[in-house]
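hiii so um. not sure if this is the right channel but i have a protein structure encoded as tokens and i wanna go backwards to a sequence. like what aa goes where. can anyone help
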């Protein structure tokens, strides 16, 4: 097991020209100078079961949010364990007279409650941004933070500490499946049991958003941050050099853009060693190809992974994830970390023109890979191309924060993290998009993040990262591992996967 990082306060600096926070290099970074991010949690197993790969971003704009009433249908039916299409009402209830969750946190008296232990799965620019939030929390409340981060074995570490009777006060929940498990076994505290008044929270977030942290109608965790997963990152300079004059909007246009960049210097980077990158590919093709209703069903207890639409999506993936387009070929890509794939596109001498992943790529590319990148010239993004259905839909990934103890410090942190002040600090780093309605576009440091926030606002429908909605204990190979084999040429037995997924749902 990797030794967790147990320090806080690594200095974060901000480039006034580019508006993205970055920190001094550390020994934890890879040989290419890229810190591994939290996404490694996708391959971690808790001690007692084999875990399905879980992935690892919301906003509040000055205008009203156009989130569909079905916005979190998949997330809500998963958290509620109810029938398909069910949505949860906003959580409410808490002792009268407790501090309003929408207001500033209050100071905690020195003593045992004067410090808390916070466990995180983030790394790189996301960790730096979170540390800025922790610093602001301490300044506002007087509560000191003993911060730990475990990038490689997070799920195992969190489960082991819970089982061993030494849980952190606050932890990031590694997927909605884990949240359901921790809530049902009593490890995760209800916000109402902490003495937090949750009645005003729903006014501060998009409709249905708090459902992601709810189980059986009770609120256990609050949204921390999120990112659009429908962002295709690219080098504008290479597109221009190779005759791609307009950004692709359809799948066929996207393949044409890749054709134009093959060998000049290369079309597409892929880091499939981190298999969650492949599940994100799958989800974004599936929702655009099969539609929102089919997406909601597939990633719920009612889903059928043996349905032909699953293999159709994989076949579509293989139209671009192949040796022709992927720089270095598929075999090399399966052994390549996703941060190294980012570097293939955005280092000073690029090897590829395009890399697909969520909105968080911009902060990593500018903050860690190449601080000399210039928005609109050497880095930019366009929406994931449409496939048949032209409705503007996308997926998003996000994290929720929960309390594993009922200490006064844990209560203070939860109350703080839902304030506009906390969300403005986080948004100002450029690493995330805030779901809080008290954060406007002026809080973001550059146009890349502003456009990401606007894309989520303007989408006809958006859906939670599907892999994060699956049960926490799926025996055998997870979705990401199956997709790794699929891109390598193996035929996947989706009926077998369906049997294992159904067993995991039934066990919840």
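sure thing!! here u go:
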């Amino acid at each position: 097991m990797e030794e967790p990082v147990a320090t806080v306060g690594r200095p974060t600096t901000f480039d006034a020209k580019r508006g993205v926070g970055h920190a001094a290099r550390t020994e934890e970074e890879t040989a290419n100078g890229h810190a591994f991010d939290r996404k490694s949690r996708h391959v971690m197993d808790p001690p007692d079961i084999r875990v399905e790969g879980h992935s690892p971003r919301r906003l509040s704009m000055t205008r009203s949010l156009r989130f569909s009433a079905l916005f979190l249908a998949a997330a809500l039916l998963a958290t509620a364990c109810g029938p398909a299409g069910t949505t949860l009402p906003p959580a409410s209830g808490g002792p009268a007279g407790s501090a309003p969750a929408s207001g500033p946190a209050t100071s905690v008296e020195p003593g045992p409650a004067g410090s808390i232990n916070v466990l995180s799965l983030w790394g790189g620019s996301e960790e730096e941004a979170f540390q800025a939030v922790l610093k602001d929390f301490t300044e506002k409340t007087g509560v000191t933070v003993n911060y730990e981060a475990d990038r490689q074995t997070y799920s195992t570490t969190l489960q082991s500490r819970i089982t061993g009777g030494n849980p952190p006060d606050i932890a990031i929940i590694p997927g909605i499946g884990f949240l359901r498990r921790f809530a049902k076994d009593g490890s995760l505290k209800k916000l109402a049991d902490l003495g937090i008044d949750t009645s005003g929270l729903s006014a501060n977030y998009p409709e249905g958003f708090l459902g992601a942290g709810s189980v059986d109608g009770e609120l256990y965790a609050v949204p921390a941050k999120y990112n659009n997963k429908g962002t295709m990152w690219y080098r504008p300079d290479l597109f221009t050099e190779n005759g791609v004059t307009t950004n692709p909007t359809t799948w066929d246009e996207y393949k044409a853009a890749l054709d134009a960049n093959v060998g000049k210097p290369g079309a597409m980077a892929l880091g499939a060693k981190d298999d969650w990158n492949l599940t994100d590919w799958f989800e974004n093709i599936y929702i655009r190809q099969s539609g929102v209703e089919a997406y909601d069903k597939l990633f719920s207890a009612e889903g059928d992974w043996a349905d032909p639409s699953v293999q159709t999506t994989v076949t579509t993936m293989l139209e671009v994830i192949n040796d022709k387009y992927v720089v270095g070929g598929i075999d090399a890509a399966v052994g390549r970390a996703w941060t190294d794939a980012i570097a293939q596109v955005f280092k000073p001498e690029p090897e590829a023109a395009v890399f697909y992943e969520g909105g968080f790529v911009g902060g990593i590319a500018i903050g860690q890979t190449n601080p000399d990148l210039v928005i609109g010239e050497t880095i930019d993004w366009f929406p994931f191309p449409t496939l048949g259905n032209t409705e503007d839909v996308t997926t998003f990934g996000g994290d929720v924060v929960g309390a594993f103890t009922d200490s006064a410090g844990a209560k203070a942190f939860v109350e703080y993290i839902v304030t506009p002040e906390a969300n403005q600090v986080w948004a100002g780093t450029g690493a995330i998009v805030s779901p809080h309605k008290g954060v406007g576009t002026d809080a973001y440091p550059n146009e890349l993040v502003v456009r990401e926030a606007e894309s989520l606002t303007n989408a006809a429908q958006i859906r939670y990262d599907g892999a994060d909605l699956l049960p926490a204990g799926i025996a055998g190979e997870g979705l990401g591992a199956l997709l790794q084999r699929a891109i390598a040429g193996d035929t996947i037995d989706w009926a077998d996967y369906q049997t294992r997924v159904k067993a995991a749902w039934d066990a919840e």
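oh and The two ends are 28 Å apart (CA to CA).
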